[in-house]
Amino acid sequence: MTSLGRYHLLLTSEGRAVQHGWGSNEAVARDKCRRWIGSVGTMATPRVTLTDEVTGTVLTTWPETS
After folding, report:
1. pLDDT band at residue 64, thresholds of 50, 70 and 90?
2. In this prediction, what percent of the chain has a pLDDT beyond 70?
3. Is 90 exceeded by the pLDDT of residue 19?
4. If you average pLDDT over residues 24-36, what whole number do you get?
5. Residues 6+ apart with CB under 8 A from 47
6. What is the 3-state secondary structure (H, E, C) of 1-66?
7. What is d(CA 22, CA 42) in angstroms, rounded to the nearest whole number?
8. For labelling alongside 29, which of 10, 14, 22, 37 has CA 20 to 30 A away?
9. Is the pLDDT of residue 1 over 90?
10. What residues pair up with 22 in beta bridges, in sequence order?
11. ω before 46 within 30° of 0 (cis)?
12. In the predicted model, what is the mean pLDDT of residues 4-23?
């Protein structure tokens, strides 16, 4: 965990980081994740990932992988 928070939100486009976000509250981080998904517009190959940095668990990704 960083001093910025436990939950790391990452937005990538074509595999490159575009934006990072950190939070200490999972519900707030998940809400921010939903907002980022809604704002990618015509971005090339967008991917949003929310990770719990304490456990190393990926909590959600968009688009979902099979």
Report:
1. confident
2. 94
3. yes
4. 95
5. 11, 12, 13, 61, 62, 63
6. CECCECEEEEEEECCEEEEEEEECCHHHHHHHHHHHHHCCCCCCCEEEEEEECCCCEEEEEECCCC
7. 24
8. 14
9. no
10. 8
11. no
12. 95
Q: How far apart are CA 63 and CA 66, in angstroms?
A: 10
Tell me which residue of 22, 20, 21, 11 sits closest to 44, measured CA to CA: 11
Q: Tokens 């907002």 correspond to what residue?
A: 35
Domain coordinates in residue numbering, the chain:
7-62
Structure tokens at 12: 């990538």
> Residue 24 corresponds to which amino acid?
S
Task: Name the token pair of 36.
Answer: 């980022």
